[in-house]
Amino acid sequence: MKKIFFLATAAMILALGSCVRINYNKDSGIYESELNLDYHFDDGDTEGYQTGGTSIDKQVKSLDIDWVQGEVVLQVWNNKNVLIEEEAMARGTWDNSLEMCYRLDADGKLNIRYFQEGKYELTEFHGKRLIVKVPADCKLANVKVNSVSADVKIDSIQGVKLEVKSYSGSVILNDIRFEEASFSTVSGNVINEVSEEMKMDGHQGSALDVESLSGSITLNDINFEEISLKTVSGDIYLTKANAEKVKLETQSGDIKAEYVVADEISATTVSGDSELVSCRGKKLNNSTQSGDITVSGTRCQKAKMAAVSGDIEFDTENDGYDLKASTISGEVSCKKPAVKNGDQYTIGNGKVKVELSTLSGDILII
Q1: What ranges do the domains of the chain cover?
Q2: Triad 166, 178, 17: Cα angle to 5°
Q3: Nearest CA among 357, 206, 230, 226 for reference residue 293
Q4: Rounded to the nearest 10 degrees, how much is the dihedral formed by the CA atoms of 343, 289, 360, 323?
Q5: CB within 8 A of 137, min separation 6: which ones?
Q6: What is the spatial distance between Cα 316 and Cα 32, in angstroms, rounded to a whole number?
Q7: Neighbouring C-beta atoms of residue 97, cutoff 10 Å
Q8: pLDDT > 60? residue 28
């Protein structure tokens, strides 16, 4: 995985993957203006690149895009050619020296780069929007997008493997079909406190892996064999998902999962709250340190909820439960008719095994 380092004293963000260095004007607080850009290709291979937009009538099997500032838009259209074009994001300096460059390799890989290699004085420059249109029936073997300060929007693209890495922009996806998908963002707080956000709607495949530092992750109507979502300070929202295994993890953010169906659902937070609503799973694991845990309208075969200083609220949706509820300095309340034996509560036939534990929080069974 590519790494990123923040140098606050120099007010500079360094993306090692593409060797892009962007100086930020700390005094003015403006990221788009008065920038000096030293741009290099990740592999150092600059041979055969052409500049400007174009329409490609040859077969494109994969995409490799490196974009610095502005926006990347990937979409389908009813044409057999692949179209690439760019436009300025706002009024300002724009000439041929700032055109993108591209190269189509013999194996069908289309490489698109922000500029040609070199140093640029970007006075009054606000970034560029890259638009790539591929045939609707085209299934790409690999799509790789690496952006530094550019939003990434992908709509209705299909393929085998999708990888998006964004260092200070949003990632928004709609109705895309890939067997494997990987997304990662890094906090842009050192650059004018820009936050990141990931949104996905209508996606299916075998494996989904999303990582974010300070950005939120919002996923809706997705189908994967395995789903792994991880943030540090961002929130996680997962709705209408089907999978064999779902793993949700954040430190200071909140987790909310609704209408998730999986054999195994795991949600872990440190100081954030965790909420499962109308989920279905064979096994549920939910843990937090100082956050609260809420489970409602959820059916399962086995569940374990653990907190340190947080409260736990568990809604008994199934016909019968065998619950073990324990707390050190908090209180346990059960609103359902139950047979109590110490910290053991039997509701109905006691078929579903549940463990609820917290140190200083309260436990409510409803």
Answers
A1: 195-366
A2: 30
A3: 357
A4: -10
A5: none
A6: 53
A7: 11
A8: no
C-beta neighbour count of 43 within 10 angstroms: 10
How far, in Å, CA of 8 to CA of 40, rounded? 22
274 and 293 Cβ atoms separated by less than 8 Å: yes
Distance CA 183, CA 163 (A): 6
- Residue 98, SS3 per DSSP: helix
The neighbouring-strand residues paired with 249 are 230, 268
Predicted confidence at residue 33, as pLDDT, reads: 39
Tokens of 301: 């075969």
Higher pLDDT among residues 10 and 187, named by residue: 187
Contact 263, 283 (CB under 8 A): yes
3-state secondary structure of 279: coil
> What letter would DSSP give residue 68?
E
According to DSSP, the residues that pair with 162 across neighbouring strands are 143, 181
Residue 97 sits at φ, ψ, to 5 deg, of -70, -15
190: pLDDT confidence band, cut at 50, 70 and 90? very low
Distance CA(167)–CA(183), nearest Å, equals 11
Q: Which residue has the tokens 């999986």?
A: 262
Tokens found for residue 283: 């096994």
**CA-to-CA distance for 226 and 186, rounded, in angstroms?**
23
Highest CATH level, class, for 195-366: mainly beta
The residues that bridge with 341 in the sheet, in sequence order, are: 344
Please state whether beta strands 82-88 and 54-56 pair in parallel, antiparallel, or not at all (unpaired). Answer: antiparallel
Which tens digit of pLDDT belongs to each residue from 263-307? 999 999 999 999 999 999 999 999 999 999 999 999 999 999 999
Q: What is the pTM of this model?
A: 0.79
Residue 218's contacts (CB-CB under 8 Å, 6 or more residues apart) are: 197, 198, 199, 200, 237
292-324 in b/e burial notation, b at 16+ Cβ within 10 A? bbbbbebbbeebbbbbbbbbbbbbbbbeebbbe
Query: At a CB cut-off of 8 Å and minimum separation 6, what does 297 contact?
Result: 277, 278, 279, 315, 317
